[in-house]
Write a structure and sequence with these properties.
The chain is α/β, with parallel strands linked by helices. The protein contains 15 helices and 13 strands. The strands form 4 sheets. A 5-stranded parallel sheet has the order 1-6-7-10-11, covered by helices on one side. Strand 3 and strand 4 form a beta hairpin. Helix 6 crosses helix 7, helix 7 crosses helix 8 and helix 13 runs parallel beside helix 15.
């Protein structure tokens, strides 16, 4: 019998087959699931890594990672042609703050000292940024949405049809994207994470109880925005997967109760996922840190079937999820980032306790359970990639 996992096939087709459980035993080693902090490649170069890994393309090439193109111009539901890539990481296409507002707010430095800078963001928040780690999560000091009056002004910037939201060279953009043999991820915002960015977590949580009509209006506007963007994008672009960003959990569980998720969020998700399903998109990814075990069955009800990054420190267990949900769920990440620091023996035990079983049962994309921090040694990351190649029956890379 031919081992289908070893039969070459176009990258896009392979992604779809893995997600749909048709490539049992296949070990996709994807750039999508092996991202890194901006500082990490520079630290690794000092440890002896080649300078080619300093760019996203060089990193992908050196480690021979499968390429998954994401529509970066639609990060957080924004398609923009005039935002430049991060100057600290050329070629990355990564933006520190790309909120779904058009026009964006003016970014101004309010004050700074030797270690920190306080500034306003494109999204209208005020944050304190570390100069030592500029791409680390900033500390939020103020948020733009505080009440109905500030929300009514803010929502004027959330129109999907604003011309500046879309690349001016749309036809050329579509042709360039559709010509690549790589699965394309359309990135949209969800119905909690972005509201938290607008109002702040504590204020938002009180709003659910004190001003539910305001929360509902914010979610309705987000639905209008994501639906408008999705309809426009899918009319021309070839898309295999849609990703929602939420970040709505912490180490012990969701930031709001499953009952609240079901009451406020589920109806809005159902409308957008019904539309995506009507367009033939059945791979719907959701990015949320923390322990999302209580949320997964709710997401599955509306076809959100691909949770990530499955943080081990938060109690996420890919093997247990596969046994519980079978082929209804696609899994990604779930390799404990702490194992990379503890040494090769611990890392091997972590990988071998999960990856062989999960790839044999299908629909699994192994990777570190978030972006790789700079305290992970270059040698250990190379060892990890070679462990995956060993499991997949591929030739190892030089370590």
């Amino acid at each position: 019998m031919v081992d289908k996992s070893k039969v070459p096939m176009p990258n896009r087709e392979r992604f779809l087959a893995v997600c749909r459980g048709k490539r049992l035993g296949d070990v996709p080693i994807a750039d999508w699931y092996n991202k890194y902090w901006a500082e990490t490649p520079a630290v690794w170069v000092k440890q002896g890594a080649p300078k080619e890994i300093l760019t996203a393309e060089g990193f992908q090439s050196y480690f021979q990672l499968d390429h998954y193109q994401s529509l970066q111009e639609i990060v957080a539901c924004v398609m923009r042609s005039d935002l430049k890539e991060d100057p600290e990481q050329p070629g990355s296409g990564y933006y520190l703050v790309t909120p779904p507002v058009v026009p964006v707010f003016e970014q101004k430095v309010l004050r700074e000292d030797g270690r920190h800078r306080v500034e306003t963001t494109y999204g209208g928040a005020t944050v304190e940024v570390s100069k030592e780690h500029p791409l680390a999560m900033p500390r939020y000091l103020d948020h733009p949405v505080k009440d109905w009056a500030s929300w009514r002004e803010y929502k004027k910037r959330l129109d999907p049809d604003t011309p500046e939201r879309w690349p001016r060279d749309w036809e050329a953009y579509v042709a360039r994207r559709n010509s690549q043999d790589a699965p394309t991820l359309l990135m949209l915002s969800g119905f909690f994470g972005m509201l938290r960015e607008w109002a702040g977590l504590e204020r938002l949580l009180f709003m659910f109880y004190d001003e539910p009509d305001l929360v509902e209006d914010m979610m309705e506007q987000m639905l209008y925005l994501v639906m408008g963007v999705a309809k426009r994008a899918l009319r021309d672009l070839r898309v295999e997967c849609v990703r929602f960003w939420e970040d709505m959990a912490y180490k012990a569980g969701p930031l709001i109760s499953p009952a609240m998720v079901r009451k406020f969020m589920l109806p809005h998700y159902r409308k957008i996922t019904d539309f995506l399903h009507s367009q033939g998109i059945d791979i719907i990814h959701l990015d949320s840190d923390g322990n999302v075990n209580e949320l997964i069955p709710i997401w599955l009800e509306v076809g959100i079937n691909f949770p990530w990054p499955l943080e081990v420190a938060a109690g996420m267990d890919g093997v247990a999820l596969r046994k519980k949900y079978g082929k209804d769920i696609i899994l990604g990440g779930n390799i404990d980032k702490r194992a990379f620091i503890k040494g090769k023996d611990v890392l091997r035990e972590e990988v071998m306790s999960k990856v062989p079983y999960l790839v044999e049962t299908g629909a699994f994309f192994p990777g570190i359970d978030h972006s790789t921090p700079p305290d992970v040694p270059f040698e250990n990351f190379c060892y990890f990639i070679n462990l995956l190649r060993e499991i997949g029956g591929l030739e190892k890379l030089p370590e």
